[in-house]
Task: structure prediction
Amino acid sequence: MFYRTDEPHGLPHNPFNALVVPRPIGWISSQDSKGHVNLAPYSFFNAVAYSPPQVMFATSGPHEEDDGLKDTISNIQETGEFVVNIATWDLRHAMNATSAPAPRDVDEFEAVGLEKEASQMVGPPRVAASPIHLECTYDQTVELPKTDPNDSNLVVFGTVVGIHINDDIMAGGKVDLMKADIIGRLGYRDYTRVTDIFSLARPDWPIEPVEPVE
Ligand SMILES: Cc1cc2nc3c(=O)[nH]c(=O)nc-3n(C[C@H](O)[C@H](O)[C@H](O)COP(=O)(O)O)c2cc1C
Result:
């Protein structure tokens, strides 16, 4: 099938986020200037630079409470700091629960019963049970085009200033992703687990024609 995105796709559900997959999940902790802590997942999330390491996430749609910004972006713009916690298989229900449209002053760590761990370089706490944390400082927000004037499509960029890796997922000086059991977002209500890993060496030039293989 082909459809133009400015015309109806004719399907029962929008297929767009089932096509760009798997997407990493940034489970983002932040806090406002009064110290109210917030935690929410974002799968329009990725790493975008090595040096210094930088990440982005995108928020779309209004906050359901007051049509303002979602708590995560509003907190980050207010206090300039956030933590990306990496979501794992055993934390999947807790991660999903923190996506509920909670009132602004609700601390999702407490609502879901997640233990906090203090960060080293930024104010927002970390999800203690997550094996990977990226402590970040806020750089900029980029406003994207939007179809609905009441919507907001905003991309937040930040610099990773500190990284925690649980020693339990390290082996031979490398991160052992089979031990980490990280989850990613697919389309609809679907997710995936990082359980099937293969390696490819980078090619030299010139390259030869390459057939698809089983
Ligand atoms: C796995 C997952 C990924 C999500 N990704 C996004 C996203 O990329 N952008 C977004 O705006 N909302 C996303 N959401 C919805 C937000 O988590 C939800 O709107 C949440 O209430 C926002 O919380 P906050 O207002 O505390 O920031 C996602 C939800 C789930 C469960």
